[in-house]
Amino acid sequence: MTRVLSVASECAPFIKTGGLADVVGALPVALARQGCDMRTLIPGYPAVIAALDGSAVLEADLPDLFGGAARLLRQRLAGIDLMVLDAPHLYDRPGAIYTAENRRDHADNPERFAALSWAAAHIGAEGVPDWRPDVLHLHDWQAGLAPVYLRDMGAADRVATVLTIHNIAYHGLAPAEKLTALGLSVVDFTPGGFEYYNQIGALKAGIVFSDCVTTVSPTYAHELMTPAFGMGLDGVLRARPDGVTGILNGIDTEAWDPASDPAIAARYSAPSGKRANREALQKELGLPTGEGPLCVVISRLTGQKGLDLLQEALPALIERGGRLALLGSGDEELEHAWRDAARHPCVSVTIGYDEALARRMIAGGDAILVPSRFEPCGLTQLYGLRYGTIPLVALTGGLADTVIPANDAALKAGCSTGIQFNPIDSHTLACALVEMTELFADKRLWSKLQRNAMRHPVGWDRSAARYAALYRDLATSA
Ligand code: ADP
User: Which of 196, 210, 237, 428 has the fewest Cβ atoms within 10 Å of its own Cβ atom?
Assistant: First the structure.
């Protein structure tokens, strides 16, 4: 049985800001079915420490971890064998997990996540009582330095490393002056090592020093190797002889099931069951009833997500009787712009983070919009498929891999599940919104799309088998 330590800065249901948490939380359950013995290491933020109870086991004392004492705690919770890095000097503070109350990054983020990476390498090199991983599965820049520490501990031959890039936009940069504070060697501070334009790049370290690099969809794996999407790291990725492997994300189909979801107004297993949820949602959000589709967006508000394009394209939807409900938070400017847009009676905007509302919106919406400029995988379109809420998505990354567009050929073959648009600009998005209202007006066709969507496989089985095979290969060659 392959023993794997999954290392991440977020894990649902304990702590979440985006899709990374869903994936890290779902992997252990999916991988257990594949015969993997997976533990998951995350930082001991206040919410995580609060989730532990008296039965948490002390696995190791780390007397001086980047400026303070730390402990490794372990407890099985929500089907996850959780290892928690309890380091109050790094994690016990107000604010969000990456940013302080003033919305700026915590100044010591390099130390906070170097500590997570160091602890992962330490578990790899030394093990904990009765357990030592064969493979470290590292997620994003926050775990990117682990292979460097592992090599410095002399254990790189014994423990394999795989880095998964969930979003290459976040490099985890730190000033060169932090080299000593982070316990890194100047020898690696070169273009062939983790130096990135005179800064320390944690994601680059992961790319250069891991045994294998994966990302969360096949299309994003191709895109990442191009200057248009690689965000300055495409050359480093191309330099890897084995390139980047794309393994598509799934969703937890038990936790996200309209037939049993306790958060929604009326549970359903066929598209007709959505009507009651739609009515409840319209009422809750104060939206008028209308001829056109009720569209929903659940998203971080950042430039990546293309929601500025949606604002420009919105009249095309509203003029045809459509309505929009948006739930999100993020950039101040975008929050402001969407609050303004909500002055229109057909637009509802909720600024904040609210999973129960997200579920009611997915259940009650007719369509879910994801107009991202780039999207490694995207999860909300998968929730949309599962709930019979037709995805309208940009043709990029995982959105391209998960939605079968309603073009003539696919409609004829009866397998369409949504609408895609390309190029990614406001004009083309407006055309796609018009196309959607036309499809929506054809009730038989729309309900066929909904049935196709609800049948589309969005679970973890296939991808979990691929991860399991990858771990096995890495473990035997380590
Ligand atoms: P990303 O990871 O880039 O944020 P994904 O689509 O992969 O995008 O995952 C986003 C996840 O976070 C989904 O589970 C989505 O439902 C959730 N989410 C995003 N914003 C909110 C919000 N404001 N309230 C509730 N859930 C949200």
Answer: 428
